[in-house]
Design goal:
Low-confidence stretches: none
Helix content: 40-55%
Distance between the termini: 44 Å
Structural class: alpha/beta
Largest sheet: 6 strands, parallel
Number of strands: 14
Number of domains: 3
Order of helices and strands: HHHHEHEHEHEEEEHEHEHEHEEHEE
CATH class of the largest domain: Alpha Beta
CATH architecture of the largest domain: 3-Layer(aba) Sandwich
Number of helices: 12
């Protein structure tokens, strides 16, 4: 069986260069890397990565735990993470919890047992689950610290860095646009109530309505972020009887499901009912009518999460950072006939 010395001799490089190519710990030119991989292939060399990891305490593996891979919010987030980490030799391990807390805990334990160098988590844990977040903040295996960065959530009392947006103000921004576009009675399709970001958007919806409508009564329907749930919540709801003329959906996928239900029920968008989504995912610009939405900098969120994690991997004692990213309104034809009709082709 070939060993690392044989590979180095075959490639005409040092053992250290072979090690750096395999582990990705230091930059090696493309020319030398090709020679090393060619030698590995020729000799059939297989590195014992488990033994190497135990010795170096580094696996070059980053875990990414997300609530649901079907949510088209996440691909650009993951691309931002990938672009920030892959050129440094890190491998990404993607885990989909399917909005299930038990699965999330299982994946966290699995990544811990695999000696992952760090974990980025879009958690579905309840806001008051302090014990769980304390465990995330102190995740270790055999004295190896495994840093964690949260996506879309912040726990100020827990030592976990995070990247998020101001969901409350973004919710107000969405509802304010509907009022500015002439709406009088606005319905909100919320996401699952376990989520603090969902509750922040609901509060933004309520407070902006109170500021604009003295006779406001909340109309909140709960979906699960899928297009089907957006469709089902609107399909049989008595919109005309309730005099609904605006819909704020907590993500683009539910908004698009609502658009389909409105079309089937004979409503014209935006003349009869105006619709706004959230996230500015790639589908928002290509549906008909094009969807007005709140633009969340998804790629930047992934990029910032990766950068925070790298800082903690390199120095576990650095202070916690909680990054708040700005959002902006993308006005399209689902709320205003003169809205933007251009397709967005970047990022998918």
């Amino acid at each position: 069986m070939s060993n690392i010395k044989d590979v180095a001799k075959e490639a005409g490089v040092s053992i250290a260069t072979v090690s750096n190519v395999i582990s990705g710990t230091k930059h090696v030119s493309e020319k030398l890397s090709r020679r090393v991989y060619s030698a590995i292939d020729k000799l059939g060399y297989e590195m014992n990565t488990v033994a190497s990891s135990l010795k170096s305490r580094k696996t070059n593996t980053i875990g990414i735990v997300i609530p649901n891979i079907n949510r088209i919010f996440f691909p650009q987030v993951m691309r931002g993470i990938h672009d920030s980490l892959s050129h440094l030799g890190y491998n990404l391990m993607l885990c989909d919890t399917d909005d299930n807390m038990e699965r999330e805990m299982f994946f966290i334990q699995m990544l811990k047992n695999s000696w992952a160098d760090g974990i980025i988590v879009g958690s579905v844990a309840a806001e008051n689950d302090q014990d769980y977040f304390n465990k995330l903040a102190n995740l270790t295996i055999r004295d190896k610290i495994i840093p964690v960065v949260l996506l879309e959530r912040e726990f100020a009392d827990t030592r976990i860095s995070s990247v998020r947006i101001d969901n409350y103000q973004a919710g107000r921004m969405a509802v304010r646009h509907l009022f500015d576009s002439g709406c009088k009675r606005i319905l909100h399709i919320a996401g699952p109530r376990y989520s603090c970001m969902v509750n922040a958007r609901i509060k933004g919806y309520i407070d902006e309505n109170k500021a604009n409508s003295p006779t406001f009564e909340p109309v909140i329907l709960e979906g699960d972020f899928s297009p089907l749930s957006g469709y089902q919540t609107i399909k049989n709801y008595p919109l005309a009887q309730e005099k609904i003329d605006g819909i704020f959906a907590a993500n683009d996928q539910m908004a698009i499901g609502a658009l389909n239900a409105l079309r089937e029920n004979g409503f014209n968008v935006p003349d009869d009912i105006k619709v706004i989504g959230f996230d500015n995912t790639f589908v928002a610009s290509i549906v008909e009518p094009a969807l007005t939405t709140i633009n969340v900098p998804k790629y930047k969120m992934g990029q910032n999460a990766a950068e925070l994690l790298l800082k903690q991997i390199n120095n576990p004692k650095i202070p916690v950072q909680n990054i708040m990213l700005p959002v902006n309104l993308m006005v399209r034809r689902s709320t205003q006939l003169g809205g933007d009709r251009a397709w967005e082709l970047f990022g998918w």
